[in-house]
Write a structure and sequence with these properties.
254 residues, binds ligand BJW, 11 helices, 17% strand, alpha/beta, 38% helix, 6-stranded parallel β-sheet
């Protein structure tokens, strides 16, 4: 079935929908030039998560971990949001209740103008004191010091991100599950849906009766459970949905 035909029933649903939640992953930023984690060109092909994205790795070698994050800050800082981020920012004004839950730490949803955002895995522009837990925002690339230290107490600063084996912020996670189980439509955009607990959010939405829509060039473990699966890039599929939503009659405007 071509995308236009498959879209028609979804557009009818979206027209009557007031509560939409979107879960995004690295794939939505891929078209901005930010590497994803998994897949042929993903970061985990070249770098070992155990050596760079765990607390044990940071304790063992904070300088190495910070050099890797500084390199990624350099890449992310030089990139712009894309058409996929833009559509989601527009939808915040279109639907009465609209939230983005992102696994991304790149801040591109905010840059695109989205405001109702939950960052599940933190933000690469924030640094956290390992002693006092205070969080500061710092956009300098490169950082002034490797590893950086807290200006107040001198303790090591760490990236304010969630590494493997670490718990997500409890109130953010609680809100994410609440938004997932109370929405009428959930979009799942650009995530491999393998990392927990984020991957459970669309299942919570489906279990609560939401229509679940996946946008991804590749199938994921979630694909068998979704209602609509659009195989393609977020920056191409989301504008098509957005364009069709703005026509008065989705059956006529193809
Ligand atoms: C496009 C595209 C385009 C390409 N358009 N799409 C229960 C069961 C099993 C394991 C666990 C479990 N609970 C916890 C775990 C352990 C672990 C986990 O899930 N492991 C699995 C890998 C097996 N989870 C955790 O440790 C979490 N903590 C936790 O649960 O605490 C409690 C606990 C601890 C220990 C045991 C039990 C409970 C924390 C997870 C933290 C994840 N952190 C990272 C790094 C963040 C910081 C950083 O960036 O440096 O988060 S890892 C990495 O994966 C990053 C991402 O946010 C996350 C998800 O990746 P994402 O976004 O899906 O990206 P990709 O690359 O995987 O996929 C990209 C997709 O885009 C692909 O599908 C492409 O096809 C697609 N795509 N171009 C649209 N243009």
């Amino acid at each position: 079935m071509d995308i236009q035909t498959e879209l028609t029933p979804l557009i009818h649903i979206l027209r009557k929908t007031s509560r939409v939640t979107v879960l995004t992953g690295a794939g939505i930023s891929a078209e901005s030039g930010i590497p994803t984690f998994r897949g042929e060109e993903g970061l985990w092909k070249t770098y070992r998560a155990e050596e760079l994205a765990t607390l044990a790795a940071f304790i063992r070698n904070p300088k190495l971990v910070w050099e890797w994050y500084d390199w990624r800050r350099g890449i992310i800082g030089s990139k712009e949001y894309n058409a996929g981020h833009e559509v989601l920012s527009r939808w915040e004004k279109l639907f009465p209740t609209f939230h983005v839950i992102t696994q991304n730490i790149d801040g591109l949803h905010q840059k695109a103008g989205s405001r109702n955002i939950l960052e599940l895995h933190g933000n690469i522009w924030k640094l956290r004191c390992t002693k006092e837990e205070t969080v500061i925002e710092d956009h300098s690339t490169p950082l002034n010091e490797f590893p950086p230290h807290c200006l107040d107490c001198g303790a090591l600063l760490r990236p304010h991100v969630v590494w493997f084996g670490e718990s997500l912020d409890a109130s953010i996670l609680q809100s994410a599950f609440a938004l997932s189980s109370s929405c009428e439509v959930m979009f799942v955009v650009g995530t491999s849906a393998v990392v927990q607990p984020a991957a459970s959010l669309p299942i919570a939405a489906a279990n609560a009766g939401a229509t679940v829509v996946e946008v991804n060039p590749d199938p994921t473990p979630l694909t068998p459970y979704v209602d609509y699966s659009f195989r393609g890039k977020a920056g191409e599929i989301l504008p098509v949905i957005d364009g069709k939503l703005s026509f008065s009659n989705p059956d006529e405007e193809k």
